[in-house]
Structures are given as structure tokens and as C-alpha cells.
Amino acid sequence: MIPLLHPPYPLLKHAFNMLAGVAIAFHGLAQAGDETPANGILWEVKSTMNTAYLFGSIHLAKASFYPLPDAVQQAFQQADVLMVEIDGSDAEAGKKAMPWLSYTTPDNLKRHLRTATWKKLQAMLGNSVAQVSQLKPAIVATSLSLGIFTAQGYDAAEGVDLHFIRRAHAAHKPVVELESMEFQAQVLGGLDDEDGDALLLQTLEALQSGEAVRETEQMVRAWQEGDAETLVRILEQTADKDKGSRKMMKLLLDDRNPHMAAQMAAAIHAGKKIFVVVGAGHIAGKNSITDLLQRQGYQLRQLRQSGSPEQLFLPLRQP
Questions:
Q1: Residue 104 region, left (φ>0) first, then alpha (ψ -120 to 50), else beta?
Q2: 10 Å Cβ neighbour count for 63?
């Protein structure tokens, strides 16, 4: 369960608003991450003729994470084009995508869940379960997860991708989407009943056990510190929980990365100066965008803040 790194948050706005009045208490949550500016994870991608920059986003963040490091600011400023997963500022696109995430009456969520999963959901939401009865399992699972982040002070309006989208619009820089809201909605809404049930059940159990909070703290800390290796380890641990987790990680990350990497490569080859912002889960580890680009012959290095005033950013080992 890693909604901080890769979900289509504009699509979740309607569902999350429906959950706003649901009586769910997240007691005793630690505030994940320090209240200091974040390093984030920035990659330099070089071909023989061009250089591009790839930055890992967390889709919900805090105002205290800004300003981002100078190297990130410079990478954005030198770019002619901003590339993102989706442009979350496009409200109309979000409305068009929502039908993929909901059932049409008389169909409803209960019909697509195992009895045990439905009872767990009822136990958590009480009578308010009726408010989500028309939503598909993936959107309910991710929306419930958002409660953790909002309880810890995170806000989609402070998300890294939206931060740069707003800046690009203000600077009149083109914003190019690597995917569409409709595509992302089809991915989440297209899960079969078995996978949808497994995702929702895993989310409910993680919320009840406190595992979701621990995972959140670890992910945010790794991202803030620019620790790509720890982030990879968390992702691998998440995927290795069971067969369903491996399948879901493949669907949400591995299956989408080749298309993103191909579009980035095409822009580099065309000589465009690009700054690319995607969920941090897409940019580290095996089958990630960085891994795929490196296999194609691009030279990559991660840029990380150091304590040395002579060299603010130092290259790390290649992925």
C-alpha cells in the first residue's frame, strides 16, 4: 500500500470528499518526516547529445518540504518542457475519468467483494459504508489510505507534481502528460474482482495493524533524505508480501514504466530540454524508468545534497 508514490490523486478528490464525513479515527499517528525542506530524489540522464532531469514526486506533501534543493530548482528552470504523469490541475479530465472508478446502479461494491472483506469494511466505516457503496475497491482502498496522510498533515495541494505544474503554467512552459487520467482510472477501475478484493483487504488490514503508518514514515523519510536505495527496499518488501502484492506492484509500477521511459527517451532524442516529475516509486530499482533508460545506453547518476559547500551535489552509484 503505497499511495504516496503513484496514485491518480485528481481522480480521488470526489471519492475522498465522500469519505470526509465517515467516522474513521486514526489515533496516535506519528508525524512522518521532519518539518524541514526535503532533498527528494533527482536523476541526471545523459545521452551523447542531450541532458535531461528526472525527479521523484510524492503526490501529497507539506509546505515545510519547500523550498526544494538548488539543483532541483535549476533542473526545472533550464527545462523548456515539464513532463508529468498527469496534469492534476485539469478538473474536466478528472470528471471524465470518474465513471471508470464507480459502479452503475443497481450494481454496487458489495456484489464484488468476498463476505469477509465486506464485513471488515463495514466494521471500519459503520453505517457510513453506504457512502462508498458505488465506488470500486481500488478507489475505496486508496481513499481510505489518504486518511493516514491527511491525519499527518499531508495535502494534495502541496504535492510535488502539482507544485511544478503550477510553476510551469506561471512560466508559460508546456506541460506534457506521460499518461492520461482516463488511462490511470482504467488501470485502477479495471481490476477484476479477485484483485480488487485483495487490494482492499490488504489496505484494511494494514490500517488496523498500524503497518500503513510505519510504511508511510519509512517512505517519507527515505524520500526526504534522497535515499533511493532504502526506497527500493521498501518497495521490494511491499511487493514480496504475497502473490497479490507482487501482481499489484507489477500493474501499478512495472507495467507503466516502459511507456514513460519511451516518451522520455523520445524527447531527449528530439533535443528537448525536459524536467520530468513522476511518482518516486517509478524511478528507482529493477524495471524502473532509470533502469530501463540505462539499459538503452543512457548515462545516469543520482544527484544528492552533501555537506560540502564546495560541491553541493555529489553523484551516487548508478542504478
A1: beta
A2: 11
* Residue 318 to residue 84: CA distance in whole angstroms: 23
Phi, psi of 55 (to 5 degrees): -120, 135
d(CA 291, CA 298): 10
pLDDT band at 267 (very low <50, low <70, confident <90, very high): very high
- Cα distance between residue 39 and residue 58, in whole Å: 12
pLDDT in tens, 179-222: 988 888 888 888 899 989 988 998 899 888 888 888 878 888 89
Evaluate whether 224 touches 39 at the Cβ level (below 8 Å): yes
CA distances from 16 to 74, 131, 225 (A): 35, 10, 29
- Whether 38 contacts 11, CB under 8 Å: no
Question: 268: which 3 cell numbers?
Answer: 531527449
Distance between CA atoms of 64 and 245, rounded to whole angstroms? 32
CB atoms within 10 A of CB 36: 9
**What pTM was estimated for this model as a whole?**
0.85
| Cβ contact 22:125 at 8 Å | yes
Look at residues 47, 112, 89 and name the one whose alpha carbon lies nearest to residue 269: 47
Q: HEC profile for 167-205?
A: HHHHCCCCEEECCCHHHHHHHHHCCCHHHHHHHHHHHHH
> Are 11 and 181 spatial neighbours (Cβ–Cβ below 8 Å)?
yes
Q: Alpha carbon 98 to chain centroid distance? A: 18
Q: Is-contact 81 272, C-beta < 8 A?
A: yes
Using a CB cutoff of 8 Å and minimum separation of 24, what contacts does 22-30 make?
A: 22/125, 22/126, 22/128, 22/131, 22/132, 23/125, 23/126, 23/128, 24/124, 24/125, 24/144, 24/147, 26/147, 26/148, 26/151, 26/207, 26/213, 29/148, 29/151, 29/152, 29/213, 30/152, 30/213, 30/217
